[in-house]
Automatic annotation (TrEMBL):
N(1)-(5-phospho-beta-D-ribosyl)glycinamide binds at G13, S14, N15. The gene is purN. This is Phosphoribosylglycinamide formyltransferase. Keywords: Purine biosynthesis, Transferase. Belongs to the GART family. It comes from Roseovarius albus. (6R)-10-formyltetrahydrofolate binds at R66, N108. Pathway: Purine metabolism; IMP biosynthesis via de novo pathway; N(2)-formyl-N(1)-(5-phospho-D-ribosyl)glycinamide from N(1)-(5-phospho-D-ribosyl)glycinamide (10-formyl THF route): step 1/1. It holds the Pfam family Formyl_trans_N. CDD domains: FMT_core_GART. HAMAP family: PurN. It catalyses: N(1)-(5-phospho-beta-D-ribosyl)glycinamide + (6R)-10-formyltetrahydrofolate = N(2)-formyl-N(1)-(5-phospho-beta-D-ribosyl)glycinamide + (6S)-5,6,7,8-tetrahydrofolate + H(+). Catalyzes the transfer of a formyl group from 10-formyltetrahydrofolate to 5-phospho-ribosyl-glycinamide (GAR), producing 5-phospho-ribosyl-N-formylglycinamide (FGAR) and tetrahydrofolate.
Length: 197
């Protein structure tokens, strides 16, 4: 049975585009919704251009009331009946209640080689630490930030003269390869970790 995939974005949606485009042809999943917390997110127009349904649940009217906000988020998602949720640059920290609601069905991509550098500013932190390599990780989402079982990683060397921006660009190229590869396996019921050079 083909799995239905909802993708959550806050910005331009480059990882969302790589996921949607990968679900063409012979694939165990299909996109059913792209949802954003930001009506101006560039990813919405890109999803619409690919004939994928979109929705916006703006977090701002809810202030600090994350429970009420997430209730609206859950309602919007459940209307689309996804089997899998992919976070693709969704810049909201989700509560334990929301995560538990979708436990075992929600993926995230993070721009570091977890467990290193959870949270923000991952590329600058890797450079400051003098690391020889950086990369990205796709993992199942759990209530702990950037935690959960690792389903795949891709590595890139850190080069002399790298800046956070130049490193981010090379890592993003790998994100666009890794995330679709992991989603295809996950939708087919395969959860063994993969590692890309």
């Amino acid at each position: 049975m083909t799995k239905r995939v909802a993708i959550l974005v806050s910005g331009g949606g480059s990882n969302m585009v790589s996921l949607i485009d990968s679900m063409l042809g012979d694939h165990p999943a299909r996109p059913c919704l792209v949802l954003s917390n930001n009506a101006d997110a560039g990813g919405l127009a890109k999803a619409q251009a690919r004939r994928v349904a979109t929705a916006v649940v703006d977090h701002r009217p809810y202030g600090e009331d994350r429970v009420s906000y997430e209730k609206q988020l859950i309602d919007a998602l459940e209307a689309a009946q996804p089997d899998i949720i992919c976070l693709a640059g969704f810049m909201r920290v989700l509560t334990e209640h929301f995560v538990n609601h979708w436990q075992g069905r929600m993926l995230n991509i993070h721009p570091s080689l977890l467990p290193k550098y959870r949270g923000l500013n991952t590329h600058a932190r890797a450079l400051e630490a003098g690391d020889a390599e950086a990369g990205c990780t796709v993992h199942e989402v759990t209530p702990a930030l950037d935690d959960g079982p690792i389903l795949g990683q891709a590595r890139v060397p850190i080069l002399a003269g790298d800046t956070p921006e130049s490193l981010a660009k090379r890592v993003l190229t790998q994100e666009h390869i890794l995330y679709p590869a992991v989603l295809q396996r996950f939708a087919a019921g395969v959860t063994e970790r993969i590692d890309l050079a």
